[in-house]
Amino acid sequence: xxxxxxxxxxxxxxxxxxxxxxxxxxxxxxxxxxxxxxxxxxxxxxxxxxxxxxxxxxxxxxxxxxxxxxxxxxxxxxxxxxxxxxxxxxxxxxxxxxxxxxxxxxxxxxxxxxxxxxxxxxxxxxxxxxxxxxxxxxxxxxxxxxxxxxxxxxxxxxxxxxxxxxxxxxxxxxxxxxxxxxxxxxxxxxxxxxxxxxxxxxxxxxxxxxxxxxxxxxxxxxxxxxxxxxxxxxxxxxxxxxxx
Length: 244
Prior knowledge:
The chain is mainly alpha-helical. Helices cover about 85% and strands about 0% of the residues.
């Protein structure tokens, strides 16, 4: 019966991983989307630094909740990285590890960039130590902090973009995921890389290229929903594992 139990565990294991991975991915996408569109985009007023600083100050709780949520997002992303490694390891262990390493570089950069959001909050406040600055100087520093956050995010997406390319290749070659998912994830990776390098090399075009990130969202959402709804073709996953 122990053998039967072990057999059952190995059979359900990749499917359980896939389902948990799908849920984690959904949490990541929802938090990321809400923080960007319902907090930062709502509070940052284009071309008006003073209004932006005032908005951040009056919505301090919302701003802090958004930062805390994005740290939870990162915790979920660390767990998801392990899950994707387990699911894709049978295809090519070294490449699956490479994707893990890209993520390990990415996560600290993203976490550190959240300090820029806290800096924007501190600089928008009215603490005594800020009296050393004129209001217009403080507001300029708020703007620089927010720009640094955007660029920090752009830098972390370079590493995530390469991770997506590796995931795309592994999904495509797996035989137990649809090849379309692999193509969509590779497109997501290219989208992130295009976006990040445009931001750094040709910032004038960074605003127009934001549509490219929509392609990235399609790829990531497709993988997320597939993991949740369909999961892994377990017999093929096991065959690939045995073959490997």
